[in-house]
Amino acid sequence: METPLQRLEYSLHSWIAFLVLPLFALANAGLTLEGLNFSTALRESVTLGIVLGLMLGKPLGIISFTYLAHKVLKSPLPPGVTWSHIAGAGVLAGIGFTMSLFMVTLSFSSPQATELSKLGIIMGSVASAACGLIVLSVTARQRKPASRFR
Q1: What is the pLDDT of residue 78?
Q2: Quick one: pLDDT at residue 54?
Q3: Which of 76, 88, 91, 93 has its CA 20 to 30 A from that of 56?
Q4: What is the SS3 assignment for 145?
């Protein structure tokens, strides 16, 4: 039996998880776009380094250490998990921008470097989300449904 409050909670969950929380996080990032030139910002080493770190560094680290654990420690992948899944999870790891935003506030004293870093974090997170979605959707299409009765 489901109470009216539980029904309301379940009906709002998707809206909150996929719209309200991301907008809240974006609003709290504190990035001001006024006077910001995107083409110039992308050529800055701070912005480029953060975007590449989120899009390439995190997946590379996750795939590498998973492979190392698999080979050195002889730990098997969980049932049903392929290396494509590990790659997709690695790419999706670039989304985590809340801790990155926190680290920016501790790392840079220059307001310009802080703004460029925030832009890099948001761009890297959005690009990681899009790439992760593509990797995992391609993986899901390639995978044939297993028969229950063998």
Answers
A1: 92
A2: 94
A3: 76
A4: coil
